[in-house]
Design goal:
The protein has 143 residues and is of the alpha/beta class. The protein has helices at residues 19-22, 27-41, 53-66, 82-89, 129-142, and strands at 2-7, 44-49, 69-73, 95-99, 121-124. The protein has one domain (2-142): Dehydroquinase, class II (Rossmann fold, 3-Layer(aba) Sandwich), CATH 3.40.50. The protein is built from 5 helices and 5 strands; from the N terminus they run βααβαβαββα. The protein is globular. Bound molecules: 1,3,4-trihydroxy-5-OXO-cyclohexanecarboxylic acid. Residues 10, 73, 75-76, 78, 99-101, 103, 110 line the site of 1,3,4-trihydroxy-5-OXO-cyclohexanecarboxylic acid.
């Protein structure tokens, strides 16, 4: 099975951006760890990031053709985007929502997620390990 791992705005700055909240690993480090684990799990992964809401919508449309599952960290659009929720509703396979930080311990505007209305599971507060946890779950669901 092929899993598309999609990342929203500002995650291109992972490692430099508020490291006290998001840690020192870069998005390239996360991608490398995901690729390595996916190999062990018998999954193929494609890793993408966009700072634009419509860009994420189009990445979800592309996953409709090419992926059996989506792991998504929609970043700030989690809390605002009906368009991303609607796009995910057009995808038929499992969707797992990942947040590096524990959004529930942060500002109240981070407590609501539109994406959670579609997600089969949500991982928050485990740092970048959350991506690897999501891939393990995908292997269970699709293996
Ligand atoms: C985030 C949490 C969001 O609230 C925030 O806007 C992000 C990253 C996380 O991974 O913890 O950009 O999705």
């Amino acid at each position: 099975p092929t899993i598309h791992i999609l990342n929203g705005p500002n995650l291109n700055l992972l490692g430099k951006r508020q490291p006290e909240v998001y840690g020192h690993e870069t998005l390239a480090d996360v991608e490398a760890a995901c690729t390595a684990l996916a190999g062990e799990l018998g999954l193929t992964t494609a890793f993408h990031q966009s700072n634009h809401e419509g860009g994420i919508v189009e990445l979800i449309h592309a996953a409709r053709e090419a992926a059996q599952g989506i792991v998504i960290n929609p970043a700030a659009y989690t809390h605002t985007s009906v368009a991303i929720l609607d796009a995910l509703h057009t995808f038929e396979g499992p969707v797992i929502e990942v947040h590096i930080s524990n959004v529930h311990r942060r500002e109240s505007f981070r407590h609501h997620s539109y994406v959670s209305l579609r997600a089969d599971g949500v991982i928050a507060g485990f740092g970048t390990d959350g991506y690897l946890m999501a891939l393990r779950r995908m292997a269970r669901l699709l293996g």
